[in-house]
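PROTEIN DESIGN WORKSHEET
SECTION A - STRUCTURE
LENGTH: 109
TOKENS:
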């Protein structure tokens, strides 16, 4: 497993961060909006956003009208490596389960 994938999985390990990703999937939001929607204190939300950024899942920027505000959004292509790993893992499981099924069916004949 690659370091990038490890960081992504670590970032997604927390339920609050997964919910933040779901909310950001709807639209970009400020940290304050996310904290309110998740029922978290601002310092806790900041820690979660740092983890999501470190995991390569989100990015932030400032709107043109207010440089004091940061708007967070999902990073394009951030889950590509995760999706590829999941697809390969599913393929291995499917192959192993099919082989196990053949073995059980052959043993019961």
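SECTION B - SEQUENCE
RESIDUE ASSIGNMENT:
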């Amino acid at each position: 497993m690659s370091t990038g994938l490890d960081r992504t999985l670590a970032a997604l390990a927390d339920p609050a961060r997964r919910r933040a990703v779901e909310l950001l999937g709807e639209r970009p939001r400020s940290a304050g909006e996310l904290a309110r929607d998740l029922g978290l204190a601002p310092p806790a939300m900041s820690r979660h956003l740092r983890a999501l950024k470190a995991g390569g899942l989100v990015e932030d920027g400032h709107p043109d009208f207010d440089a004091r505000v940061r708007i967070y959004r999902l990073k394009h292509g951030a889950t590509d490596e995760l999706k590829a790993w999941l697809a390969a893992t599913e393929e291995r499981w499917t192959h192993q389960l099919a082989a196990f099924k053949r073995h059980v069916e052959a043993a019961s004949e």
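SECTION C - NOTES
The CA atoms of residues 88 and 94 lie 10 Å apart.
Strands lie at 29-30, 58-61, 71-74.
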